[in-house]
Design a protein that fits this description.
CATH architecture of one domain in chain B: 3-Layer(aba) Sandwich
Oligomer: heterodimer
Distance between the termini of chain A: 40 Å
CATH superfamily of one domain in chain B: Thiolase/Chalcone synthase
Mean pLDDT of chain A: 93
Low-confidence stretches of chain A: none
Structural class of chain A: mainly beta
Strand content of chain B: 15-25%
CATH topology of one domain in chain B: Peroxisomal Thiolase, Chain A, domain 1
Radius of gyration of chain A: 31 Å
Helix content of chain A: under 10%
Number of domains of chain A: 2
Distance between the termini of chain B: 14 Å
Shape of chain A: elongated
Radius of gyration of chain B: 19 Å
Mean pLDDT of chain B: 96
Strand order of the largest sheet of chain B: 3-2-4-7-1-8-12-11-9-10
C-alpha cells in the first residue's frame, strides 16, 4: 500500500493511500427514495409550508427547514434545465413534470445530443443497485408534458427499507519528502544513519530533522547524526487489535530518546519475553536498534526492525 | 468595523511561489518558510503572536486533523491554535473577530494546500453528499460546467466574453512573478483549449496550484506603532449556499450577494464601484463573472463590461490561473494588502474588495473591505 517512488524528472515521493470504509446511515427520505426506485418510481417530498415539491425526497425542507410533508411519486418525464459534458459523460439538472426544483442526474446521450429545453425521461438499471443509480439517468423523450400531479405514496414497510449503505473511499496520495525527511530517509537507506537537526538557539537536536525548531521558531540549518542507541522515555504493552496494526499483539510501543537527540522517537521494543515486558522494561532502560537485513531495507524507519534492551 | 472603537489591520503578509507542483518540499516546509517571511516583514517574533488560525483540507493533506501534525512548523507550539476547514479568508474573519473581541492582539492566519499530491477531483467529490450528488458524478468540473451553462442560458453573456475574462486573467498572471508557469493567452486560445466540462475549457477552469500564504493581523493600537502602512479591515461578511445545486438560484451567486451586502453595511455603505480594485476568487471564468456581478460591480449578465470599468478586477490575475485550494481567498487578501500598503510599484489604490469562495460550485463566500 505504501511505497517510495522516484524518477528522472520527479523528486522522490511516498506513494500511499487512505482506504476509508463507511456504513452510511440513510435516514427515512433517502431509504424510501432508493427503495421506490427499485419499483421504477421516483419519489419527492412536498413541503406544505412552502407548497413546494422537491425531488429526490428529503427529510427536511431546504428552504424553511421544517419537516417535509408527504412523500409523493412524481412523473419520470421532464425537461433539461442545465447540462455539462465531460470525458465521463453528461450530467444535467432536470425539472421533472409537476416538480418545483431540479434533479441533478446523468444525461444519457447515447441516442443523440441533449440540449437545455429538451424533453427527457427516466431510464432505470436492469436490476436495483441500492443507490440513486438504480435510476440510471435521463434519455431524450418525445413525451408530452405530464399534467399528473405528484401523488402521495403509501407508507413503505419498514422492513423493506435499507437503513445503511456500505460505502468506501480510496484516496491515493503522492507525498513529497522535502529536504529534511528526504535526507533522513536517504541516510537511513544508504548507511543506516539516523539524522536530526540542531536548533542554533536552544541547541536541542530534533529527530526527525525539521526546518524550524518548534519551541524557538528559528531555522535549524544543521543536520546532526544521532546514535541508534538510547533510553526508554515511556512505553506501553499493546494487547488490543485494531485496523491498520502492523504488528501482532502483544508488542511494546515505546518513546525512545536516542543518544544525542533531545526528542523522542516512537518505535517498538522486542527481543524480550512479552509476558514479562513490564518486569524487564522500565523508564530509562537502555535500548539499541536491531536493523533488518540490508536486502530488506527500504530507507524508512521500518529499516529498524525493533529496539531491544542492552544487557547491563 | 464601524460599531467598534478599535479597528483591525493587516500589518504584513507573505506568499510562497504558486506552482503546479511543489514536489521538493513538504507542506510543513512550505508553511514554515512563508510564516517566517510574514513574521520578518511584520517585525514580530513568533512569541508576540497570540493566536494562530490555519486553513487547509484534511482530504487534500492526506491525513486527519492535519493541523495537529503541522502546528509546530506553523509557529503554533503551546499557543491558542484553531483550524478552519475553509478558505483562509474565513480564517482571517475569525482572526478579526478574535481581536475585536479582545481575545488577541496579534493574530497569524495561515492557508495552504498541495493539490499536486492527490487527485484533486477526489477532494471535491468528498464534499458532495454521498447519497444524491456524489454517485451521479458531481465534482468541481461538473458543478462549474453546470453553473456556467446556467449563467449563459439565463443571461445575454456569451462564451466569447467568458474566454475574454479567462484570457485577461492568464495575461495578468503571466506578469505576476508569484505565479509559476503562467503565460498570456488570447480568448481564441482559451476557446481552443480542450473542453473539460462544457462550456468550460481547460484554460477557463481554475488551475489548482501548490502554495502557502500567511497574514499577520493586529489591533489598531499595535498597528499604529509599527512602521508599515496598516491596511484596515473596514468590512466583512460571509454566507453559504445550499449543498444541493438544485436548490440554488440559477445564473447567480446569492450567497455571494449576501456576503457582499454584509461587508458593505460594515463599511458604511461604501459602494462596490467606489473601490480601487477587487481581488476575487472563482473556479471558472463563468464563476468569476457571477462573483463580479454579486459584488455589485456589474448588472446581471454584464460582468464583461465591468472589466473596462473604474474598479480594476484581479490585478494579480485572480484564481483562474492559480487556485491554491483553501488558500485562494487569503492569497487575494495578500495581493490586495500588498498593493494598498504601497509594496507594489505603480499602485496608488486606497481601497479594495477581497473575495473568497469554497466548496462545490462555490458554495461558500466571504467578502472583505480593505482600506488605507
Amino acid at each position: 500500500m505504501t511505497r517510495i517512488t522516484t524518477g528522472i524528472d520527479q523528486a522522490p515521493a511516498l506513494e500511499t493511500s487512505l482506504e476509508m470504509p463507511y456504513t452510511l446511515t440513510t435516514g427515512k427520505a433517502v431509504s424510501v427514495f432508493i427503495e421506490q426506485l427499485g419499483h421504477g418510481v421516483i419519489v419527492g417530498s412536498h413541503c406544505d409550508n412552502c407548497d413546494r415539491t422537491v425531488v429526490p425526497a428529503q427529510d427536511y425542507c431546504a428552504r424553511c427547514g421544517g419537516d417535509q410533508g408527504a412523500t409523493v411519486a412524481v412523473e419520470p418525464t421532464g425537461v433539461v434545465t442545465a447540462i455539462t459534458r465531460t470525458a465521463d459523460g453528461a450530467v444535467g439538472l432536470i425539472r421533472l413534470d409537476g416538480v418545483d426544483a431540479d434533479l441533478l442526474h446523468v444525461i444519457d446521450e447515447s441516442a443523440g445530443e441533449v440540449a437545455v429545453g429538451d424533453r427527457v425521461e427516466a431510464t432505470f438499471a436492469p436490476e436495483p443497485v441500492g443507490t440513486i443509480l438504480t435510476l440510471a439517468g435521463f434519455a431524450p423523450s418525445t413525451s408530452a408534458v405530464s399534467t399528473t400531479a405528484p401523488k402521495e405514496i403509501d407508507e413503505v414497510a419498514d422492513e423493506d427499507l435499507a437503513k445503511q449503505i456500505i460505502y468506501s473511499l480510496s484516496l491515493p496520495y503522492r507525498h513529497a519528502y522535502g529536504p529534511n525527511y528526504g535526507r533522513l530517509f536517504d541516510e537511513l537507506g544508504s548507511r543506516g544513519g539516523i539524522l536530526g537537526s540542531r536548533c542554533p538557539h536552544c541547541q536541542n537536536v530534533l529527530v526527525p530533522p525539521r526546518a524550524y525548531c518548534e519551541i524557538c521558531y528559528v531555522k535549524t540549518e544543521q543536520f546532526v547524526e544521532v546514535k541508534d542507541t538510547g533510553r526508554l522515555q515511556a512505553f506501553s504493552v499493546i494487547h488490543m487489535e485494531f485496523i491498520g496494526q502492523t504488528r501482532k499483539p502483544p508488542y511494546v510501543y515505546a518513546e525512545i530518546v536516542l543518544d544525542g537527540a533531545s526528542t523522542r522517537l516512537i518505535h517498538n521494543v522486542a527481543g524480550i519475553d512479552m509476558a514479562r515486558a513490564t518486569e524487564v522494561l522500565d523508564i530509562g532502560t537502555p535500548v539499541r536498534a536491531v536493523w533488518k537485513a540490508e536486502s530488506e531495507r527500504n530507507g524508512t524507519l521500518d529499516d529498524i526492525d525493533y529496539f531491544e534492551p542492552i544487557p547491563e | 468595523m464601524s460599531t467598534s472603537t478599535e479597528r483591525v489591520a493587516v500589518v504584513s503578509s507573505a506568499l510562497s511561489q504558486l506552482k503546479p507542483a511543489w514536489d521538493t518540499v513538504q507542506h510543513i516546509d512550505l508553511i514554515s518558510e512563508t510564516v517566517n517571511q510574514a513574521l520578518l516583514a511584520s517585525g514580530f517574533d513568533i512569541h508576540d503572536v497570540d493566536v494562530v488560525i490555519d486553513c487547509g483540507s484534511d482530504v487534500l493533506d492526506g491525513r486527519s486533523i492535519s493541523n495537529c501534525g503541522f502546528l509546530g512548523q506553523m509557529g503554533a507550539h503551546h499557543k491558542e491554535e484553531s483550524r478552519v476547514e475553509e478558505d483562509g479568508l474565513f480564517g482571517a474573519m475569525y482572526a478579526v473577530n478574535k481581536i475585536l473581541g479582545g481575545g488577541a492582539k496579534v493574530a497569524l492566519v495561515i492557508a495552504y494546500s498541495k493539490p499536486s499530491e492527490s487527485i484533486v477531483e477526489n477532494y471535491y467529490r468528498t464534499i458532495a453528499d454521498p447519497f444524491y450528488q456524489r454517485p451521479v458524478g458531481l465534482n468541481k468540473a461538473v458543478a462549474a460546467g453546470l453553473l456556467a451553462n446556467q449563467y449563459l442560458t439565463g443571461t445575454d453573456a456569451t462564451e466569447e466574453e467568458l474566454a475574454e475574462i479567462a484570457a485577461r486573467a492568464w495575461t495578468r498572471a503571466a506578469a505576476n512573478s508569484k505565479v509559476s508557469d503562467a503565460r498570456a493567452y488570447t480568448a481564441r486560445e482559451i476557446l481552443d483549449s480542450p473542453v473539460v466540462a462544457s462550456p468550460l475549457n481547460q484554460l477557463s477552469l481554475s488551475r489548482p496550484v501548490d502554495g502557502a500564504v500567511a497574514i499577520v493581523l493586529t489591533s489598531e493600537t499595535i498597528a499604529r506603532k509599527l512602521g508599515s502602512t496598516p491596511v484596515w479591515v473596514t468590512g466583512m461578511g460571509s454566507a453559504m449556499e445550499s449543498q444541493f445545486l438544485s436548490e440554488r438560484e440559477p445564473g447567480r451567486l446569492e450567497a455571494c450577494e449576501v456576503a457582499a451586502g454584509m461587508a458593505k453595511r460594515f463599511a458604511g455603505g461604501k459602494e462596490a464601484t467606489s473601490y480601487g480594485f477587487a481581488e476575487v476568487s472563482a473556479t471558472s471564468a463563468a464563476d468569476e463573472a457571477m462573483v463580479v456581478e454579486a459584488l455589485g460591480l456589474a448588472a446581471r449578465g454584464k460582468a464583461a463590461s465591468a472589466y473596462d470599468g473604474d474598479v480594476d478586477i484581479n490585478p494579480s490575475g485572480g484564481a483562474i490561473p492559480a487556485d491554491p485550494i483553501m488558500a485562494t481567498g487569503l492569497v487575494r487578501m495578500h495581493e490586495a494588502a500588498n498593493r494598498l500598503s504601497g509594496r507594489v510599484e505603480g499602485s496608488s489604490a486606497t481601497s479594495a474588495l477581497v473575495h473568497a469562495s469554497g466548496g462545490i460550485g462555490m458554495q461558500t463566500h466571504s467578502v472583505f473591505s480593505l482600506e488605507v
